[in-house]
Each structure stands twice: as structure tokens, then as C-alpha cells.
């Protein structure tokens, strides 16, 4: 290859490298980019705490109902055991016990399903609200890009200087409280 061609190719490669470097520099240093730790936002969001309290209260009420049924079942079982030992089985007590056992099983399954549905609904509502508030936060704080770090590898490393999780949590909790 001639020296002139080598100089031209080297010049073109240099121009492309400098142009690319300037473009990357322009994007990286003029854009406001940050990230939030999504797990922290979720767990420290007041709405999450409110829903956790509601779910705990509902679960406690349901557990009390199940505990009462279980106590009745245990009492009826002891009665049946005593009847069996004495040789005087009462058919009505056996039917009552089986009905109570069926009722307990059905209520337990029903409570588990409703708890699961309630938690899923709460989770969806929480994430919808977080997403809405994070968009508002990004716009209000003039971010060009807000990344969500969720521990799944989407952000492998970032300097703590661009972590705005605490500010985002403060913002969404203030918005949630109507401030």
C-alpha cells in the first residue's frame, strides 16, 4: 500500500474516532442521568406500608375465624374419640364433625385465594403509583434518563453520586401525602 493511501486511511480513521469521541462526550456529559434502587423505593414507599398493614389486619381477622373453627373441630374430635372408646358412637356428632371439617377446609382455601388476590392487587397498585411518581420526579428534577436498579443485572455498576433513590422516595411519599 502506498504511503499516500496509508496517510489518507489513517486520517479518516482519526477523524471518525475524534468525531465519535466528541459525540459520546456530548451525550455523557450534557445529559442528566441517574438511577433509583427499585427495591428500596418499593419498601420505603408509604403506600406499601399502608397496604402491608391492611393485609396484616385482614389476615389476622381470617386467622381468628380459622382458629375458632379449628378449636371447634378439635373439641368435636375429642367428643368422637370419647364416644368411640365408650362404644357409643353418635351418628349426628360424626356428621357434624365432617361438615365442620369441610367448612374449615373450604374457608381456609377461600382465605388463601382472597389473600393472594388482595396482595397481587396491592402490588399492582403500588407499582402503578411508583411509576407515575417516578415519571413526575424525573420531569420535575430535569433528568434525561432515570434508570431503575432492581438487582437483576440491568445496572451492573454505577457511581453512588448518581443514585437518587433517597430523593425519589422522599418525593413519592410527599406526592402520596398530597404535598
Question: Could you walk me through the main structural features you see in this protein, from its secondary elements to its overall organization?
Answer:
It is a single chain. The protein starts with a helix and ends with a helix. It has five helices and two strands. Strands 1-2 form a two-stranded parallel sheet. The radius of gyration is 32 Å and the shape is elongated. The protein folds into two domains: 1-30; 31-176, 2-Layer Sandwich (Protein Binding, DinI Protein, Chain A), CATH 3.30.910. The longest helix is centred in the middle third of the chain and has 50 residues, at 91-140. It has helices at residues 3-30, 38-44, 46-86, 91-140, 165-176; strands at 33-37, 145-149. Helix 2 (38-44) runs parallel beside helix 5 (165-176). With 179 residues, the chain is mainly alpha-helical.
Biggest sheet strand order reads 1-2
Ranges where pLDDT stays below 50 over 5 or more residues in a row are none
Indicate the mean pLDDT. Answer: 85
Distance between the ends: 71 Å
Order of helices and strands: HEHHHEH
Shape annotation: elongated
- Number of helix segments? 5
Q: What is the CATH architecture assignment of the largest domain?
A: 2-Layer Sandwich
CATH topology of the largest domain: Protein Binding, DinI Protein, Chain A
- Estimate percent helicity: over 70%
Number of strands: 2
The tally of structural domains comes to 2
Strand content: 5-15%
The major β-sheet equals: 2 strands, parallel
CATH class of the largest domain: Alpha Beta
Using only C-alpha atoms, the radius of gyration works out to 32 Å
Structural class: mainly alpha
CATH homologous group name of the largest domain: Skp domain
Amino acid at each position: 500500500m502506498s504511503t499516500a493511501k496509508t496517510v489518507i486511511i489513517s486520517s479518516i480513521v482519526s477523524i471518525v474516532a475524534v468525531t465519535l469521541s466528541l459525540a459520546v462526550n456530548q451525550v455523557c456529559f450534557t445529559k442528566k442521568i441517574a438511577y433509583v434502587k427499585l427495591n428500596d423505593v418499593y419498601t420505603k414507599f408509604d403506600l406499601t406500608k399502608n397496604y402491608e398493614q391492611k393485609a396484616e389486619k385482614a389476615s389476622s381477622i381470617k386467622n381468628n375465624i380459622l382458629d375458632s373453627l379449628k378449636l371447634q373441630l378439635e373439641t368435636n374430635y375429642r367428643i368422637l374419640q370419647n364416644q368411640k372408646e365408650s362404644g357409643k358412637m353418635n351418628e349426628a356428632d360424626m356428621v357434624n364433625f365432617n361438615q365442620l371439617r369441610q367448612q374449615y377446609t373450604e374457608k381456609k382455601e377461600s382465605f388463601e385465594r382472597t389473600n393472594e388476590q388482595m396482595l397481587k392487587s396491592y402490588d399492582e397498585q403500588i407499582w402503578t403509583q411508583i411509576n407515575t411518581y417516578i415519571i413526575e420526579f424525573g420531569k420535575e428534577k430535569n433528568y434525561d434518563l432515570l434508570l431503575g436498579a432492581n438487582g437483576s443485572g440491568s445496572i451492573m455498576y454505577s457511581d453512588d453520586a448518581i443514585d437518587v433513590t433517597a430523593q425519589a422516595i422522599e418525593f413519592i411519599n410527599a406526592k402520596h401525602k398530597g404535598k
